[in-house]
Amino acid sequence: MLDKNGIAKRIAKEVKDGYYVNLGIGIPTLVANFVRDDISVEFQSENGVLGMGPFPFEGEEDADIINAGKQTITTLPGASFFDSATSFGMIRGQHVHLTILGAMEVAENGDIANWKIPGKMVKGMGGAMDLVASAENIIVAMMHTNRDGDSKLLKRCTLPLTGVGCVTKIVTNLAVLEVTDQGFKLLERAPGVSVEEIKNATEGRLVVDGDVPEMRI
C-alpha cells in the first residue's frame, strides 16, 4: 500500500499542463512536490497565493510565506500575493481547474466530510465549503480506513458534510476510485494490494469491472 507521499505522487499524474490547482490541507499539499518538470502548473492557496512551489527544506523556511493550513511554503518565479477576497473570487468564479482535498469521510454518491469532528478541535474549514461548491473537478486524497481500521469510504457520511455529490475521484493508500452513479468504481490497485483487500476496506458500494490494474507511479 502507499504512504502519504505515494498518494500525492499518484495524484500528481492527474495534473495537466496549464492547470490552476488548489491544494487542500494535509496530503494534498504534498502534490506540488511531484508534478512533472515539463509542464506549467499554477498552485493556488485560498489565503491569497498563486504560484506555490514545493515544501521548503529544513532550515530554508520563511515564516512569512505560508499556505492556508499555516504551513511554510516556497513560491516560484512570478508568484503573486493578494487578499482573500480576490482569492475566493478566483474560486467562486470557477477559474480553478482542479481541486485536491483531504477528507475524513466520502460517501458513495460523492458527498464529502472534511471540516469538523463534533467535540474535537480541528484546524478549521478553511476554504473547503467554497471549493466544493464551485469546483467541477475534485480529487480527494485520504487514507482508506481510520486508525481503528474502519472504512472512510461509506454509504453515507456520518460527520457534518462539507459538500454534497461533488467528489469525482479518490486516491487512497489502497486504490484509485471514481465516483459514479453505481458507487465507487475501482480503477487501480495500489502495489501489492488485492481487490479483495479493497472490498473489505470499503463500506460503500464498490464497482469492480473486469481486471483492475496495479497503479503506476
From TrEMBL:
Pfam families from the xrefs?
CoA_trans (PF01144)
Looking up SUPFAM superfamilies in the UniProt record yields:
NagB/RpiA/CoA transferase-like
A GO MF annotation of the entry reads:
transferase activity
Alphabetical keyword list: Transferase
InterPro entries for the chain: 3-oxoacid_CoA-transf_B, CoA_trans_fam_I, CoA_transf_AS, NagB/RpiA_transferase-like
Entry similarity comment = Belongs to the 3-oxoacid CoA-transferase subunit B family.
Task: Give the protein name, as stated in the record.
Answer: CoA transferase subunit B
Q: Which organism is it from?
A: Flagellimonas aurea
